[in-house]
Amino acid sequence: MGLFNKIFNSEKKEGVEKKTSTPWIDLNSMAQLDKIEKRSEDRTIAILKHSTTCGISRMVLKMFEADYDLDENAPIDLYFLDLKAYRDISNEIAERFKVRHESPQLIVLKNREVVHHTSHQGISAGKLKELV
User: What is the pTM (predicted TM-score) of this model?
Assistant: First the structure.
């Protein structure tokens, strides 16, 4: 069967563009929050809060990554927060930006302000693209 796949799938691979991975920046220190807030004056900032032990969070992450197609030069920084490892950072985000904690959750900042936040199936790479 391996030989058949090599022969017959070779045609399918032609013209198929390899999708690049999602350009996540790990959010793993409180000090990053001040830098993120300042950077939002010049770029769109998106923070995805993800629970590594939640099936829904895992599904939303996979869907988001499958749909993410922003150009690598787009003016956006995409941060990934592992809630299990960094709950204190998640709590600070909720307090600082006045957004109730949810998981999974996407928070979008521009000019130091939250311009969009959503959770669960509301998280969409397409919506994020509209906001950039």
Answer: 0.82
